[in-house]
Amino acid sequence: MNAFITGAYDTAVGKLPGSSCMGLHAEAALGALDDAGLALGDIDGVLCAYSFTEPHLMLASVFCEYLGIHPGTCAAIQAGGATACIMIMQAAALVASGQCRNVLVVTGDNRLSGLSRDGAVAALAEVGHPQFERPFGISVPASYALVARRYMHEYGATSEQLAAIAVQHRKHALLHPKAQQREPITVADVLASKEIASPLRMLDCCLISDGGAAVVVSSKAAAADTRHKPVEILGAGQGHTHEHIVAAPSLTDFGCKTSSATAFARAGVTAKDIDVAEIYDSFTITLLVELESIGFFERGTAGVAAERGELAIGGRLPCNTHGGLLSYAHSGAAGGMFHAVEAVHQLRGRAKERQVRDARLAFVHGDGGILSAHCSLVLGAH
Prior knowledge:
Elements: E1 3-10, H1 21-36, E2 45-48, H2 59-67, E3 73-76, H3 83-96, E4 102-110, H4 111-114, H5 117-125, H6 140-155, H7 159-173, H8 187-192, E5 195-197, E6 200-201, E7 210-219, H9 220-223, E8 231-240, H10 256-267, E9 276-279, H11 284-294, H12 302-307, H13 324-327, H14 333-348, E10 361-368, E11 373-381
Parallel strand pairs: 2-3, 2-4, 9-10
Antiparallel strand pairs: 1-7, 1-8, 4-7, 5-6, 8-11, 10-11
Helix pairs in contact: 7-11
């Protein structure tokens, strides 16, 4: 695709008193620029996402004003958890087409310290269909619980298998010094945690966090002048089937099937070639369904694989090696960007205790809404 990730950075995560959306954006952006060995003046494109704590119709323009830069291309993209991957895909198109040399892709929000419980509930309630869902009190966890129930009915997955995913993610988070949750958990702990929406329990659900993350996407010519070996964007694809769960054509097959097939085809690889996967995990059922729809596992086998430790570092498919949204952190669009940053660390061989041996190809995936919007990336060590 003639596009390369030349810089990547994520801030501290968890509860960060005194943090702000713009402050996290700026820290992440400057960190990514420093990682790339670039200056603010080298940036000619900026893509931002959205914020719950500092909402604005033109968040990217607000950020550029905050940082004092005047890029030739500037836009904000809003696609829920798919936003980070979609922005990276868009940045790749901008540099490959010659419209930009270096695009700064930045995300961040202080959802844990800057948003009240009522504010969070109100914001997430907007996800539901105003006529057919909201009047009946459906929530985001309840929507994913609906998917979980259907999947369990069709393929025989168990709560223990979902719990195994949460446990494996926590084991990975224990290896990351910045992870928000670093207390070991067991399958029994997951099953004993508070029920949120049957069959999903508290430890089946992602975290709420403060934090930010950013990457720099550069053209081939610009990448030659950066500090570290760039990570090549080999393939990208999107898949969209619905917005509201009431309109989903299936509760077990989603747009990740299309987005991943497109990304694999453009990269000239298959699921079997991937060394490490960083896949959106808003709930344990999210990852289970996506692992199978993408093609990493046959239908009905991903849960068994999780129980066997096949998602572990050193396993068949090392997955979410930083701990994912379940144990590392989730701060809005930055949650998906954490996955991309971790993939960069893995492909550069800089993941330390989390390092997957001989990692050359990484798969990154984000989904937004109720498994609504999907974007997949295939990244390669250069």
